[in-house]
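Figure 6 in text form: structure in, sequence out.
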């Protein structure tokens, strides 16, 4: 196992979480969820995107050191 494996696993988990949220929001929308519920999913999707972006930026900055 390389030193990159834990970071890759964390990245993979973040991407999987984001994909899952998007898919579930779409499913709930097709099944008639109200705007409040869809808004909760959208807010969580934004948090997941921010977390993913922070992870990538942090990783890129660490590469420069």
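Output sequence:
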């Amino acid at each position: 196992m390389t030193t990159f494996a834990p970071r890759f696993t964390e990245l993979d988990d973040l991407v999987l979480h984001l994909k899952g949220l998007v898919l579930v929001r779409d499913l709930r929308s097709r099944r008639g969820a109200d705007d409040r519920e869809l808004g909760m999913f959208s807010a969580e999707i934004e948090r997941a995107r921010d977390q993913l972006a922070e992870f990538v930026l942090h990783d890129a900055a660490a590469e420069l050191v």
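Caption detail: Residues 4-64 form one domain.
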